[in-house]
Amino acid sequence: MSSQPQTSTGPRSRNTSEIVRLLLVPLALIISILVGRWSLGVMKDADAPRFLVVGVALLVGVFGIWIAYWLCNELLNLIPSETLRERIRPVIFVGPALALLIIYLVYPTVMTAYYSVLDKNSETFVGLENFKFAFTNRTIQIALRNNLYWIVGVTSFSVVGGLVMAVLFDKVRYEAVAKSMIFLPMIISFVGAGVIWRFMYASNPPGVGLLNAFIGNFDFKPVAWLINKSVNNIALIVIMIWLQTGFCLVILSAALKAIPADIIDAARVDGAGELDIFWRIIIPSLKTTILTVVTTVVIAVLKVFDIVFVMTNGNYETEVIANRMFTEFFRNQNYGLSSALTMILVIAVLPVMIINVRNARRQRG
Amino acid sequence: MRIQRLLSRSFVHFAVIAIAFLWTLPTVGVLVSSFRPENDVKNSGWWNALKHPFEESVWTFKNYADVINANGLGEAFVNTLVVTIPATILPITVAAFAAYAFAWMKFPGRDWLFAMVIGLMVVPLQVALIPILRLYTQTGIAGTFLGLWLAHTGFGLPLAIYLLYNYISQLPGDLIESAKIDGASDFTVFMRIVLPLSTPAIASFAIFQFLWIWNDLLVSLVFLGTNKVLTVKLSELTGSLGNKWHLLTAGAFVSMIVPLAVFFALQRYFVRGLLAGSVKG
């Protein structure tokens, strides 16, 4: 953007700006590299003052990436041949994304598959031993069983609950408020939800936990909800239902509102009852959306980790696959078994996720 | 007939209010307890505080002061900000550049590369934990903020690219073509036209990603060593504080305050992002 009139000095000012650019861009490059190296040092330095680390980290994290893209683009502009420039430019745009995807998703998937057929220290090849162990070990069998309980329990209750709520809430004027109250739990971390429900289930000190106080009204003795093996899995599953129903409600409610009102009105004029409308019109129109919601919830449930980690850490027969995987990896340092468990998780998630992505793309048309 | 309708109307109202009340009850219990003095929390259920809500001795801020200072949640709060803000901006930036290239630039292998990106949405991030931790230990960025940002970026990218591509590819082609004919480079077109027009899609994804990272436990637990974030710290406290409910409840609220603020301020975008992003695994 030169301020000179373009008519006569146009070519020359472009030339000068080319030269300025030729000098400035390498300078900017050198400065960024130096600043980058310095800030990495600060972030790693355990003795650096905290406000400095925080400040540097935020600045680098927020602006660094933009400067990097800008610099690469400017460097590219220094190449004289236009065809070459335009051929390289897409690399700058997609290169970083592809590099990150390869490092963080492609490479680890291959490596995890590889580790899963090696022993606990990833040294010798053991074939399918880890998988065989996983399917015969009692704790892991319990984990697999619990994952199944979770899938059935959470999916059915949160999807049906979300659907019923979507239909009911649609009929009242304070719908927005009611909906917010249901999906508020969704924005809370699983850990936060864990504390909330530990408090609900608390049996110590006596009289503090709401649930035990409630059943106390009917002369039941307090229950150790998280330890008693006949109820603890249900107690954990309830938390996930509490978290996921809001998601189902929001998605299903949006789809419900997309059903043309005249179809429902026409049915009503023809004398259809509310239940007829629900089964004959609402359910069929929501089929694709219900499939999306079901698959999304199933995936979330298959990978459930935080709740179990915080509430029981898998003790008292509440283990799930993702938590076992973490325990084998972090505490037992059995990388072979942990990787095998991860692969079991991948194989379980894969078909559901494929249905989900296909479904989403079909919906988009 | 009239009476029947009135009955079914009141049934609907009763059901809606009862459900909403039940759903909120656990959170309210924690909120109320977090403001009660230690002795009260220990000796009586939180609902008792609501019997005399206007007596001053029933409420206190001390739990919050304790948990933020003595239990280190204040520091964890700052760490969480340092993790979450860049880990939201990085994937959006990288994804936006890539989405633009996939939508509007011509290069060999574009279609199958894009298919690969979509395909990666099916990979659960659990696969990355062991290999990436080993890689980090070898390269020396284990336990740094940078390592965690990049990990979150990598895991968030497939969905981010997918969502932003859906939006950016729908922008009017004439606008982009004519800007290019006027001599604008791809970089200029991207910065001046595509980014500003994509604000709604970016905002929706940003809220989604922000909350996801703020609430993440697993990735931080594995990659962030000593700089503990709120979720990690809080999960430790549930172990070490055991039955000190006055502190745990306050801690839970400290970890929830930012998501709550985001939720109430940007609810509209949040719902939109949820609707667009319901394929996330």
Structure explained in plain terms:
The complex is a heterodimer of chains A (365) and B (281). Chain A contains 15 helices and no strands. Chain A is mainly α and 365 residues long. Chain A folds into 2 domains: 6-115, no CATH class; 130-364, MetI-like fold (Orthogonal Bundle). Chain B is mostly helical. Chain B has 2 domains: 2-60, no CATH class; 71-276, MetI-like fold (Orthogonal Bundle). Helix content of chain B is 75%, strand content 0%. In chain B, α12 (230-240) runs antiparallel to α13 (245-265). Chain B is globular and about 75 Å long. The mean pLDDT of chain B is 89. The chains are: A mainly alpha (365), B mainly alpha (281). At the A-B interface, α1, α2, α3, α5 and α6 of A face α1, α2, α4, α5 and α6 of B.
CATH superfamily caption of the largest domain in chain A: MetI-like
Estimate nothing, just give the exact number of structural domains of chain A: 2
- Name the CATH architecture of the largest domain in chain A: Orthogonal Bundle
Mean pLDDT of chain B: 89
Radius of gyration of chain B, in Å, reads 24 Å
Unreliable runs of chain A: 1-10
Key words describing this protein structure:
heterodimer; A: 365 residues; mainly alpha; MetI-like fold; 15 helices; disordered N terminus; B: 281 residues; 2 domains; 14 helices; 75% helix; globular
What is the secondary structure topology, with strand pairs?
The complex is a heterodimer of chains A (365) and B (281).
Chain A: H1 6-44, H2 50-77, H3 82-115, H4 129-136, H5 138-169, H6 175-183, H7 190-201, H8 210-216, H9 232-257, H10 261-269, H11 274-285, H12 287-302, H13 306-311, H14 321-331, H15 335-364
Chain B: H1 2-34, H2 38-43, H3 62-69, H4 73-104, H5 110-119, H6 129-139, H7 145-168, H8 173-181, H9 186-197, H10 199-215, H11 218-223, H12 230-240, H13 245-265, H14 267-276
